[in-house]
Amino acid sequence: MTFGSLVLTIEQMRSVPQYWQKSADSQLFVYTAYGSSMLAIGLSALLHGLILVFLGVGLLRRSTNGALTQDRSSHATLVRMFWVWIAVSTVIITTVVTTLTTVSGA
Question: How many domains does the chain have?
Answer without folding.
Answer: 1
